[in-house]
User: Fold this.
Amino acid sequence: MNKDLIKSLMVAGGLIAVALAATSTRSMGLIDGDAVTRLVMGATGLMLVWYGNRMPKTLVPAAKARQVQRVGGWSMVLSGLIYAGLWAFAPLDLAFTAGCAVVVAGLVVTIGYCLSLRRKAVA
Assistant:
C-alpha cells in the first residue's frame, strides 16, 4: 500500500478514536455535549493543518503545480489553525459560522491563485 495512504488512514483513524473517546466520556457523565463537539471539531481543524503541511511536500513534475501546492498548503494550514482555535475558544454559533467561512476563504485563496497562474500562462 502507498505510504501516503497509510498515513492518511492513520490520521482518519485517530479522528474517529477521538470522537469515540469523547462520546464514551460523555456517556459516563464526565463531559457535556458541547465539549464533545469542540474536541471533535478542533481535531478536524488540526487534521486540516496536517494535510496542509504535507501538501507542498508531495512530488509533482510541474513548477506551476508546486507553486499552487505551496499556496494551497499555507492557506490550508492557516485556515485549519484558525478553525481549531475558533472551536476551542469561541461560542459555538460563532465557531460554526466563522470556522466554515475561514475554510471556504482558504479554498477561495487557492482557487484564485490557480486562476491567476492560468491567466498569466495564457497571456
User: Anything to note?
Assistant: The mean pLDDT is 93.
